[in-house]
């Protein structure tokens, strides 16, 4: 069966510090991978998606970037965090445009 | 703006009652999906309805789709306290891009 992992679960970082969130998927090949951000009590904002290794599409201009170094690994990064980067970050995968499967999320607080 | 907008934003009902939430979208779709999110957790897929379907059932869930009105509804029958969560609709207006609505926060009182 397929599983998706995200880490860390929670993170508290100072403004201006770097960020690296990792997502890995097991049990499937060539998944479409997604990063979303969710502000408290709000809907999901699509940040990045990837349909293959090295193929990244960015949806929202910001100081975040994403990379897909391996087929089932998706990384969200920032060189310098802003206060506005705080939120709940969710990774998800799909094999078509049907069901998306979400990871447990990372709660990021930037102080 | 969001492709999907849920209505109402919040809903509070007694256990055993039915809960209905609605979703409106703006562009043509291949399918519409509903997800549930428990507080502080990832989203869980509930049900998918394709554009050529009008109604679909899964257990206590009933989803309808009206493509002429660009709207969908999710009905949860005989609600339980465990149904307390946020519910989101999602559409895919462009290949690979999922657009989620703003969500309905459902609270089921025991």
Protein model, in words:
- The complex is a heterodimer of chains A (111) and B (110).
- Chain A is mainly beta.
- Chain A has a single domain (3-110), classed as Immunoglobulins (Immunoglobulin-like), CATH 2.60.40.10.
- In chain A, 0% of the residues lie in helices and 59% in strands.
- Chain A has strands spanning 3-7, 10-13, 19-26, 32-38, 44-52, 55-58, 64-70, 73-78, 87-94, 101-102, 106-110.
- In chain A, strands 2, 4, 5, 6, 9, 10 and 11 form a 7-stranded mixed beta sheet that branches. A 4-stranded antiparallel beta sheet of chain A has the order 1-3-8-7, with no helix packed on it.
- The radius of gyration of chain A is 13 Å and the shape is globular.
- Chain A starts with a strand and ends with a strand.
- The relative contact order of chain A is 0.33.
- Chain B is mostly beta strands.
- Chain B has one domain (5-109): Sandwich (Immunoglobulin-like).
- Chain B contains no helices and 11 strands.
- In chain B, strands 2, 4, 5, 9, 10 and 11 form a 6-stranded mixed beta sheet that branches. Chain B has a 5-stranded antiparallel beta sheet with strand order 1-3-8-7-6, with no helix packed on it.
- In chain B, strand 4 and strand 5 form a beta hairpin.
- The mean pLDDT of chain B is 92.
- At the A-B interface, strand 4, strand 5, strand 9 and strand 10 of A face strand 4, strand 5, strand 9 and strand 10 of B.
């Amino acid at each position: 069966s397929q599983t998706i992992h995200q880490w860390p679960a929670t993170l508290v970082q100072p403004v201006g510090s770097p960020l690296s969130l990792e997502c890995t998927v097991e049990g499937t090949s060539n998944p479409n991978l997604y990063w979303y951000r969710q502000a408290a009590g709000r809907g999901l904002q699509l940040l990045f998606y990837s349909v293959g290794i090295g193929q990244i599409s960015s949806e929202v201009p910001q100081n975040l970037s994403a990379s897909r170094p391996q087929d089932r690994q998706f990384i969200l990064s920032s060189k310098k965090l802003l206060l506005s980067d705080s939120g709940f970050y969710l990774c998800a995968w799909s094999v078509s445009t049907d069901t998306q499967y979400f990871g447990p999320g990372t709660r990021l607080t930037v102080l | 703006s969001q492709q999907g907008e849920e209505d109402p934003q919040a809903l509070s009902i007694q256990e055993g009652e039915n809960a209905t939430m609605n979703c409106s979208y703006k562009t043509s779709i291949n399918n519409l999906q509903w997800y549930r999110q428990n507080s502080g957790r990832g989203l869980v897929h509930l049900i998918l309805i394709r554009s050529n379907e009008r109604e679909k059932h899964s257990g206590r869930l009933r989803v309808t789709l009206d493509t002429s009105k660009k709207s969908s509804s999710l009905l949860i029958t005989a609600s339980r306290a465990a149904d307390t969560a946020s519910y989101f609709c999602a559409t895919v207006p462009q290949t690979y891009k999922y657009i989620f609505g703003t969500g309905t926060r459902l609270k089921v009182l025991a």
